Structures are given as C-alpha cells and as structure tokens.
C-alpha cells in the first residue's frame, strides 16, 4: 500500500475527520459503560456468594492477617448489597453477631445506616 492508497482511505477533507472522531469516542464511551455495568453485576454476584459461603470465616481470616481496611471494604460492600436487596434482618442477625463474637465494636455509622 503506498501513500496514494492511504489518501484514498483517509481523505484530507476536514469535514469528515471530526465526525469520525466523535463517532469513535461515543462508541468507546458506550463500551466503557457496558463494561462498568458488567463489573458491578459481577461484584454483586460475588458478594452474595461470599455471604452464602459464610462471610464471617473470611472476616476472621482477614482480621488475623491485620487487614482492617480490607475488612471495612467487605463491610461496606455487604451493606450496599443488603441495602439493595432489603435483607436488613438477615444482615443484622448474621454479620453483627459475627462482629460481636469477634470482639469488634459496632460502628455507630453502620448501625444508623442499617436502621435507616
């Protein structure tokens, strides 16, 4: 392919170039939004599976490893999950009792979030 063929494929007309760029960016944005939605769905599925496989075991494991920030991430992920699916009673009975048994004090922010 020589330079003349390249000029035929991508003309130097300035009116076509902005349209191509806008369409390309819109297509990228749509693909990024779809990927973000898929990632959110996967996170929700993983959180529900983790809860069914006894999240308290994972919390004990991470507390023993001194990863308190990671434990907080799990707490808030599960808060969001149960806020979405409206399972407040299951959350309160399972997780809060798990935190109490581990000697972790209840955060007032988490308690208020659950009551609301």
What does this protein look like?
By secondary structure, the protein is mostly helical. It has one domain. Helices cover 82% and strands 0% of the residues. It has 6 helices and no strands. It has helices at residues 3-9, 16-52, 55-64, 68-85, 88-102, 108-115. The longest helix is centred in the first third of the chain and has 37 residues, at 16-52. Residues 1-8, 87-92 and 106-116 have low confidence and may be disordered. The chain crosses the membrane at residues 29-62. Keywords: Membrane, Transmembrane, Transmembrane helix.
Query: What is the averaged pLDDT score?
Result: 60
Gross geometry: elongated
Tell me the domain tally.
1
- Report helical residue fraction: over 70%
Low-confidence stretches: 1-8, 87-92, 106-116
Q: H/E series, N to C?
A: HHHHHH
Total beta-strand segments: 0
Transmembrane segments: 29-62
Keywords: Membrane, Transmembrane, Transmembrane helix
